[in-house]
Amino acid sequence: MKTWGKMGVALCCVCLLSAFSGDKGQKDEEEKEAANHSYNPKFMQEAIRIAVENVKNGTGGPFGAVVVKDGKVIASSGNTVTPDNDPTAHAEVNAIRKACKALGSFQLTGCEVYTSCEPCPMCLGAIYWARPERVYYACTKEDAADGGFDDSFIYKEIALKEAERSIPFLNQREEGAGEEFRLWKEKEDKVEY
Ligand SMILES: [Zn+2]
Predict the structure, then answer these.
(1) In angstroms, what is the span from residue 150 Cα to ligand 1's centroid?
(2) pLDDT tens digits for range 5-20
(3) Ligand 1 centre distance from Cα of residue 184 (Å)
(4) pTM, rounded to two decimals
(5) Residues taking part in catalysis
């Protein structure tokens, strides 16, 4: 009886200990998860630093972007439109490309994008396709317009009728258009994204 009593106490201690450590373990995980997805100013400072360096070094436009996963930078880039002769080489697109390569994935699951400036419509689209968890930006599109980058102009164009845009979009449907989608829907071994 005495022995059982001791064992009982011992068991209780073990139970309590394991229950406590279990709760603690879960809490640690939750805290880690929250920390992983909460804003961290050092990553924004890095995006801004890249943007500033890009101007000082003459290596492209005044923009920088950083992709973060699990509290670590997995990719970063400045804008390289002019050195690469690539109008799509915005900082966000460059950083997304690098991050996806680093992850070996076409999705930025569990990632956050930090960008020195509010994304333009192209980068906004690229971000939606990449599907990160969150986007943090420093300057706004109004700041960009003031700096000579009128992204807001493109945002306004989207709302216009296609033919009335400064670059008219004209729907010319030829025979065979849509065959690709019929094939895609039927394809059983496709990689969906
Ligand atoms: Zn952009």
Answers:
(1) 11
(2) 444 444 444 444 444 4
(3) 29
(4) 0.81
(5) 92
